[in-house]
Design a protein that fits this description.
Layout: H1 11-16, H2 19-44, H3 49-72, H4 79-106, H5 118-142
Helix pairs in contact: 2-3, 2-5, 3-4, 4-5
C-alpha cells in the first residue's frame, strides 16, 4: 500500500480549502524547519548569511516539494518533469528574495535595529518574499496540470 498525505485528510476537506491555504499550511512546516536551521547556523555556528539561508532553504524545499505535490496542488506531475522545474523555481526565488532583502537592509530600511541584527532582519524579510514568489512559481510552473484535449 502506498502512503499518501492526502489519505490522512478527508477528501471533502481538501475540496473546501483553497490551494493558497494549503500552501500556507505546508509553508508553516517548511518555513519553521528552514528558519530554525538558518538562524541556528547563523547564530550558533556563525555560518555565513548565504550558506545559512541556502542550507535552511534546501531542507524547506525538500519538505515543500513532496507536501505541495500531494497536499497543496494534488498534482500528478511526474517527478522527472516536476523536480527540474521545482529546482529552477526554488533557486530563482531564493536568489531573488534574499538578494532583495539584503539590499533593503543595506539601504537602511531597518535602521532602527542594532547593526548586529541586520542579517537576522534580512533573513526574515527574505522569507516573506520567498514564500510569496515560491507559491506562484509552484502553482504556475511546477505543478501546473496539462490540459488533456
Amino acid at each position: 500500500m502506498e502512503w499518501r498525505v492526502t489519505n490522512l485528510i478527508p477528501a471533502n476537506t481538501l475540496k473546501r480549502t483553497s490551494p493558497f491555504i494549503r500552501f500556507a499550511l505546508v509553508g508553516v512546516v517548511n518555513t519553521a524547519a528552514g528558519l530554525f536551521i538558518m538562524l541556528f547556523l547563523l547564530n550558533v555556528f556563525s555560518v555565513s548569511y548565504w550558506l545559512s539561508t541556502f542550507t535552511g532553504n534546501v531542507v524547506g524545499a525538500v519538505i515543500s516539494y513532496f507536501l505541495n505535490k500531494a497536499f497543496t496542488f494534488e498534482s500528478s506531475v511526474r517527478f522527472r518533469e516536476g523536480a527540474p522545474r521545482f529546482l529552477a523555481v526554488i533557486l530563482g526565488c531564493y536568489f531573488m528574495s534574499y538578494w532583495l532583502s539584503g539590499r533593503i537592509v543595506d539601504a537602511g530600511a531597518v535602521g532602527f535595529l542594532p547593526r548586529e541584527w541586520a542579517d537576522n532582519a534580512a533573513v526574515l524579510i527574505g522569507s516573506v518574499f520567498y514564500t510569496v514568489s515560491n507559491y506562484f512559481g509552484q502553482k504556475k510552473i511546477v505543478f501546473r496540470q496539462r490540459e488533456n484535449n
